[in-house]
Batch of 2 targets.
Target 1
Amino acid sequence: MISEVRLGALEQHFSRKSHDITFYDIPWYWSDMEIYSQLNENVGYIEYMRIKRCHKYRTVRATLRFSNAYEQIYKNGGVNVSITKGERNYFFRMFDSRLTYNQVKEKYFWQASKKLEDSALVSDYTVIKEYVKEYKAFFGKNR
């Protein structure tokens, strides 16, 4: 006898379609299980994941079903991922894995920068979140 079990919560809280996504700029010192649990808790349900160490960061290629919130961000062209771990905020970028490095670079080749004055009252996390909302931009790293 074959029984079918419906996972209603999965369909209710996550997108219907899986996406092949590459995440960049994950700290090298995060373990594989930390990466899995943080992405699974914050971004979506991970079906498959492959991790590659790239000098001082890790790159993660994952097949996942976005949470409903991240599905909307992804559909609107968003590439930002922010995760709070402990008392620290981490910022990653996500792209469709089918895009080559040159395609990603070409798509996001423009750059604007703004010098921020040091302020003890406002955290980096708050400033970045406000600018992403206000300017409909994304954050990158200054290498």
Target 2
Amino acid sequence: MASTDTLRCGPKNGGSPSMIVFLLHGLGADGNDLIDLAPHWGATVPDALFVAPHAPDPHDGAPFGRQWFSLMERTEAARLAGVAAARPVLDAMIDAECARAGLPASAVVLMGFSQGAMMALYTGLRRPRPPAGIMAYSGMLIGGVEGIVSRPPVLLVHGEVDEVVPAAASQQAESALRAAEVPVDSTFSPRLGHGIDDAGLSAGSLFLQRASAGITAA
């Protein structure tokens, strides 16, 4: 994917990055939707480069926006086929950004919202070299834990009254991940729908701080 299809911000300290945080947008959005998180979280991890790629395909359900995979058919099998097909694209993005920054794959955090969270979980848990962490906001664990090869720390964040992806999806993901011995923390926000609130941002800040410390200590 060309560099013009990727938005970047940071590091806030002006130096070379020691960590790359991928911000993976949801269905019908693009990289502009999440890049504004970079200044907020950059205050916590000033040595991080934030990367917000545009998903590879035009949204097939609207005249604008992008998608990682189609959701015209919302069966479990269709979702699994979608994330599996999109995974090599995201893997290539991760590898290219690591090469560009001169950092190992272990210095990556994958953050995603909604469909982007589905991609972060599916891809991150199957990377041969585990990322430093996965942050899944309003997402879903597609495909369960079958085929996972790495167990990075995971943060699940969800609004309890999400009308698009039910909070039960993250609750089920939490149970499945714990059973597979994946370290997982979760934050469920009362009265929050399909979005990110201050509690979710704060949980993300703490998670990124821990991930950065882990990278530095490695």
